[in-house]
Amino acid sequence: MTLDYGMLDGRRPYYRVGDPDGDPLFVLPGVSDAFQRGAPSRATAAVLSRLYRGVSDRDVWVVGRRRHIPVGSSTRDMAAEYATVIDEQGLWPADVIGVSMGGFIAQYLAADYADYVDSLALVSSATRLGGHGKQVIRDWRTLAGKGKWAELAADAERESATGVKQTVAPLLVEFAGTFADLRPAVPADVVVSLSASLEHDSRDVLDDIDAPTLVAAGDADHFFPEPRLREMKDGIDDATLALFKGAGHDLAVSEADELNGIVRRFFDGFRGDGLYP
To answer: Which range marks the domain in which residue 21 is found?
Structure first.
């Protein structure tokens, strides 16, 4: 099994896991990518290997945004840069997974660069943020501007998780923040990423997405309420909705095995009843 990581062109973090001879699976991570504090590490590669073990027969690339994102960059601008990466690495056509903010970017990737995307899975993402989600992201942007990284990280756990984790995880993060510096490697990238997420609205390009698309999310997601999810599903010609009962925005981690099983079957062409929770 591949376990590779580093920086593409010295500025874009990537992780590669799975089978290097398998079909390419290209993953666009969420806004947490901008919060990374150091260089890609073997420890993170090992975590990703476990998260994506359900698709370990694929050549899985998890590729972050460039460091020092130009101020004012939109999710569409970021999609153009990802298209360049896919082309340079010879990964097209690839099955693509976009998680949260990565899902925003993946929508434009599929709409503007259709030849690069075979099938698409949009996880914990929609056409735009819901009302509560917008307010949370505005608050995070304010905290980022003030350098209150521990407070921001704790609130991210609170807003993303469900159940006991929603209460315990923020306390643990706040405690960790008293001993460790949670400042990201490039703080400005956090502000740019949050601003791009606030401005994202892909409703006018959904008709341009030709790839079979899976919309997968939790019905307790604070950022993307069900009407937003259905808005995206209904706007894409060949789209299917998988709604996980009781799951929050951290679906990709909290329900990793079940989610990856569904994504794998979808990418393999199964669309029938009983495929989804």
So the answer is: 2-130+200-267
